[in-house]
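Sequence in, structure out. Go.
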Amino acid sequence: MIPVRDTIPARRTAWVVRGLILANVGLFLVEVMQGEALEAFLYRFGIVPTYWMLASPSDLFRWPGLVATLVTSQFLHGSLLHLGSNMLYLWIFGDNVEDRLGHGRFVLLYLGSGVVAGFAQLLMQPHASVPMIGASGAIAGVLGAYFLLFPFARVVTLVPWLFVWEFVELPAFVFLGFWFLLQWLQGLVTIGQVVDVGGVAWWAHVGGFVSGLVLVLGLRPRRHF
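Output:
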């Protein structure tokens, strides 16, 4: 299923969402310009679980760089398709969440969910040796927040029916609930696997979504009567 748009217009311009999209696109161009140095670039700024496993608690000079990758990894992508799909979800679901939370709280939700997503993947696959990159963990947090804030919003979705694609309006709780279930089921398959090739960080999606559910409860402005 491919989301196309939702049916709730945002009241204010989502400046943070626009800024994040520009930042992700800009840094993808930086990646493209790395040429033969790209692999080293991704290993430096992506999350590499084995680096965390090999670092000793007393290695004070190494830990700041490792912790920083929890944020820097959120702005890197493995391909144009990877970037495009993430930015599509951010564009569709991010504006309403930013509208409800405000710009500053939305930044905290986005980056906080991305950090939790990184930790979730580290916990579930600590021996993976490839860099984990992408904004999907942070965007999963936005989806979790949207799930709570706008459960009955309609999401216009492109759905395959046999050999034909059709546009269908689905309630947000159905679309996002199915999305989360798929991530969780795919994540279960990877438990116990040692990952040494690229793939999808399913547990980052799960962790990001759950963190979005939790964080939005504390970040959403209280209504006074």
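Check: The two ends are 40 Å apart (CA to CA). The CA atoms of residues 46 and 73 lie 4 Å apart.
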